[in-house]
Structures are given as structure tokens and as C-alpha cells.
């Protein structure tokens, strides 16, 4: 059988998540990426002395070869299942508010500014690059309610080469006068127009549209129903929305939808709860709602930092995992800064949550991570300091120790390169 010729081969340590409870740490791995950006092949244990023989056998002697330095490793890229691109300029501010006041005082006024397409272009260019450099190779984005600005968001993401889902917020009530959609038909028409725009973007087409009813309080029943109809008519469309972030929000939602038996039931009765739905937060779901989410096979985006900053509560993520509900991590800017730390969970679970979905695509979406001193992160105890002090790692699990340090004390300085579909698109080392 003829072997395809890879474009690039990495030799060094690879972290490969397997499940919530396990991951592989492969210290001497050969990984070949093809011209399509997919992983061609992996050889898991290749000793230095056998390297040339293996490469010759694979017919891969004259390709771009990257030998990782001591302290570097390859990790699947991070998947952020919930981010509001237009809220990035608000990161770290307004945290004296709880959710509904925070939306009114901070979020909606900032999002309203994106009616200005020049502002949107400048802002999104900075925001998307920053998200890529933080190691996010796949991102689920909420734009604003504006069609033109959200087209620009999709264009910018496509230009930078990130894999993403992009949605225009649907919201036709309970917002400030200059930041609300006037009619259901206007909201739906703009949504169709955005979908057409995204599907016409140039190859490699890593951006997909996602229906984005902001949350039940922002949408009238007829708007939710119309979006449910769109989802039913197009089985490739995903849906993202918020649920049960805060007690006051739940109370208000049920006031607006008195016929519903629960918050989850609001989405379900409008045809918006299914296997393609991502529900952000889900902090306060009742038992019957958890059962419904599981039955509909919807996924939950867990946003721990946002929940902490806005004092929303603690998401029972361990319970969701136990029940077999799909869970991923979301940063939810600007209620949050990027973090993957939840010390209640083992390293394998954190890795799984942070990279979930990465394993489901065959494209090479990966990070070249360094835990060396020359990254300039003084907070991270580096691999070369270990060498200098001749500090051993318990059980010889050196790679696991590096991963743990990166998760708990690493930052964007340690993310040297970001690859999406085999293309180097960002990271601290800059682009090719
Ligand atoms: Zn959110």
C-alpha cells in the first residue's frame, strides 16, 4: 500500500486524552501530519536509536521535521464551548454585579457598540487573535445581535484559521432600546443571512453557523418557536444558549413562560433541546431537568470562572459526568478569564473537559507547549530547573508532571505554537 507523504513530522512527547479517567503520556512519539492537515500516522514508542529506521520505513526522510526540546510536548488544542466575542473588552470589569444587572450595566452597552462595523472589525481582529494565542483551536462564539458585525466576526475567524461555530444573538425583548430586535421575522431573516454568509466562506471552511437564542428571557415564544423550526429543517445546524446560571434568572424565565414546567422545558417545548444543543452554565438544574437534558442528549458548557466571578453558584459537573451528559469547558468572557483549573477534578478529567471534541475530529488541532524557563513565565517551575537541581519526579511520570504544571501555573507564554488543521496559526512563537 502506498503511503501518503506527510508534510511535517514531530518527534517528542505527546499527551493523548482517552476519556474522563485516562490519558496517554507518550514520551517518545512520532506524529506525522499530511498536506490535508489531518494526522497521517502516529508511532507511539520510537527510541532515538530506531528513529532513522522508522522514518526510512515510512518513506518520510525528506519532510519538515520538528524535534521537540526538553520541556516541550504536544497537546490537543483547547475547545472553548462558550465565549462571547464582543464581551472581551469587558474582561475583569463589572464583577460587583450579579447576572441580570451585569447584563444591563455592562454587557448590553458594550455589545450595542458593534453596530459600528469599523469598531467591530478592529475589535474582533484583536479578540480572535488573543483567543487563538491562548490555545483555543475550536471556539463556540456568540456575536452580538448585529448581522453585519457577526459576518465580520466569521470573516476574521476564517482569516486567522481557527475552527469555530459562530452565532448571531437572537433577542427581541428585555434589553435596552438600541440593542433589541424589533420583529421575529427580522431576527430570523438576519439569522438566515448569516448562515448563508458563513457557508460561502472560502476553504478550508472551518467556521460553521450556530443558532444562538441568547436565553429565554431575551426571546419571545414565537421567536424561540421560529428558531426551533429552523433547527428542525436543517439537521446540520447546532444551537447554543444559556440555562440556569442564576436563581433570579430562573425565576424571571418562569414568569415569562408560565406554561413551562421548568427552564429546560422552555427550550424543549420550542424544539431547541436536542443532541446539537449546547447549554451554557446549567448551575441550578433540577433533577427532572437533568433527566430531560440527558434524554435529549444535549451538552453542557461548564463555565467555572464566570460562575465564580458573578457568584452564580457551583455547577454540579461531576454529577453530569456521572450521568453520562456531555460536558465541555467554556470561558464565557467577560464573566471569566481563561482557566482550566477545578481542583475537584483529576488531571485526566480536566484534560478531557478542556479538549473535548478535539478527539472527534481527525484534523491536527494541537498545541506545542513548553515548560522551559525561556518561555519567561516565572510562575511555572520549569523542566530546566528540575535538571539544574536534579529533582526527580515521583514514579518517573515526568510528562504528567509537566502537564500538571502547565494546567495550574501555565499561561499563553507557555503555548509556543497553535496548529489548526495542520496549519500554524498562532502562539507565543509567532507565525511562520
Ligand atoms: Zn454566556
Automatic annotation (TrEMBL):
<dbReference type="InterPro" id="IPR032466">
    <property type="entry name" value="Metal_Hydrolase"/>
</dbReference>
<dbReference type="GO" id="GO:0008270">
    <property type="term" value="F:zinc ion binding"/>
</dbReference>
<feature type="domain" description="Amidohydrolase-related">
    <location>
        <begin position="73"/>
        <end position="424"/>
    </location>
</feature>
<keyword id="KW-0378">Hydrolase</keyword>
<dbReference type="InterPro" id="IPR011059">
    <property type="entry name" value="Metal-dep_hydrolase_composite"/>
</dbReference>
<keyword id="KW-0862">Zinc</keyword>
<dbReference type="Pfam" id="PF01979">
    <property type="entry name" value="Amidohydro_1"/>
</dbReference>
<protein>
    <submittedName>
        <fullName>Guanine deaminase</fullName>
    </submittedName>
</protein>
<dbReference type="GO" id="GO:0008892">
    <property type="term" value="F:guanine deaminase activity"/>
</dbReference>
<dbReference type="InterPro" id="IPR051607">
    <property type="entry name" value="Metallo-dep_hydrolases"/>
</dbReference>
<dbReference type="GO" id="GO:0046098">
    <property type="term" value="P:guanine metabolic process"/>
</dbReference>
<dbReference type="GO" id="GO:0005829">
    <property type="term" value="C:cytosol"/>
</dbReference>
<keyword id="KW-0479">Metal-binding</keyword>
<dbReference type="InterPro" id="IPR006680">
    <property type="entry name" value="Amidohydro-rel"/>
</dbReference>
